[in-house]
Amino acid sequence: MESSSPSAPSVPDEREVQRAALVDHRQRLTDALALAPYDLILYLERAVVYSELAYPDLAAGDAYRALLLTDEVLNEGFEYHEAAKESLEGHSTEPYPKVLDHGDLLANITNMADGEDVDGSEPYRQLATTASVRCFQILSLSLLLCGCLASASDFVEKGLKILPENKELLETKGYIEQVARRRLRLKPDEPIDFHDLPDTGAVRREIYPWNTYEPDRFSEESLSFLNGQLETMAPKCAVKVSCLPVLLEGETNTDEYEIIPTCNQLGLFAKEDIAPGEAVLKEYSLLTANNRHKESTCDACGTELPPLKVQTEAVSCPECYDTVFCDEFCFSQAEEQYHPAVCDKDVDSIAKDPEAKDVAESLYLLLLARLLAMSNHQEVHSLELKEIKYIWGDFVPTQLNDIDLSVNAGPPPEWTLPFSFKYNIEIPLHILEKMDIDIFETLPQHDLWVFNTAYSKFRGTASARKGLRDGRPEVAAVHPFWCLANHDCDPNVTWEWGGRMTLFARETRVVGNRPGGIKAGEEILNHYCDVDLSVKDRREWAQGALGGWCMCKRCRDEAAATNGSD
């Protein structure tokens, strides 16, 4: 019998070839920025590459850094003025850098408004002002594509204040109005209240092609490290690979199927029998956040402290007296792992006492702030810290995120990471500046994709505690081993957080009131949401927090029963 001819090697399609070339170009620009961190032209060039790669959020991040550097160039008293000016002057020998030759920007540069005398000014000032308009072009269009209409509108107006007739800015302004009418459901003749524009959207939630920090979570090395850490927290448990149902994008007809799509994740498993009510895990974490200003809460572990008159063990930092810890242990842990990075730096007031609509975002931001403090004090990259390194961020494969970036093609369902200019770009950089960190020189540690990766890991795994005054979440924490116990709406454990996160074996199960307890070999099944909610509400929670509908057996059974009764 003749053997079949070997199959021809697969040929990458044109988009894959283009993407590989762009990723390579992005790396060259990133390497150049490591050598010239105050070069705003390099930031603009990388922003354009990000736009072509379909990362509008990362394009906005680079354009904003470039915009900050134009301010440094134009203001002699600013901290990085000389370094930014010197870098920009390196581009003044050519007529104009290619990245500024966009649309009619150079054609109408002499029409600048607000008394900008570009002809009579020094060349570097003219170049910086022109670059600022390019920043506004990229920022406004990129933020529009992210769904952040208010910020996009703000930047487009700032650009038009300098160049009122710029075609690209005027076109973007028109696009913003079109999208605003759709999202606000306005008729063509109804006026737009620009103070009411939405300013949150969604961006790609993925392991970026250049992210070299994400570990092989299933390797023997990773499992050995995790189980070594787990020994003192959960002596009757082990970290193993678990087979879980895949979260789906929305309503499905697969709830009655016996076989459904699955994926591998890490999970906690019992090594020996665990009795009902017995403690399964006790975990201490410093990756905590509190969004109440000057509240009586331990800065380290998040424990609510008693009133001052009955506090006996509480300890205040001698350098910043308003920062209180519940005892000497928490203070020593804070000093060892993060506190010196923020001590007496006026960081505590940022994002505190937020409006009701911003409560959740403020907690995620403050978790990021704590992560950055830990990273900078320990001199370890944020994504290498054990507190988040092994957490899965519900990432979507890069190829599924690759879409048409035309203005009218909204983000697809795979874009699942909530995003805003304020919480993803502006305030994180402000926090770093408050910590006396050079946001340009430390770009490898503080790039926007690093922030986004951390946010991806926080969402769906951070736990929160509500305040007694108004029932709003006011303290949050990430416990990396607690969240290794995978979610199920019929959990075999319940949890309690008060300084330590403790998992207990349930006395009875949710479904059928079955006896509790966990047998050796069984997986520890946690719950990240209120299991008393309806299947509809639980799945809506999972869609927002985890990026897809929960497909656990309880959800499938209840959804199938509901659909069958309709």
Automatic annotation (TrEMBL):
- MF-aspect GO terms: zinc ion binding
Tree of life domain: Eukaryota
Family annotation (InterPro entries): H3K4_H4K5_MeTrfase, SET_dom, SET_dom_sf, TPR-like_helical_dom_sf, Znf_MYND
Say yes or no: keyword Lipid metabolism present: no
SET domain boundaries: 235-529
Q: Which UniProt keywords apply?
A: Metal-binding, Zinc, Zinc-finger
What residue range is the signal peptide? none
Gene Ontology cellular component terms for the protein in this record: nucleus
CDD domains associated with the record: SET_SMYD
Pfam families, sorted: SET
For whether the record's keyword set contains Signal, the answer is: no
This protein's name: SET domain-containing protein
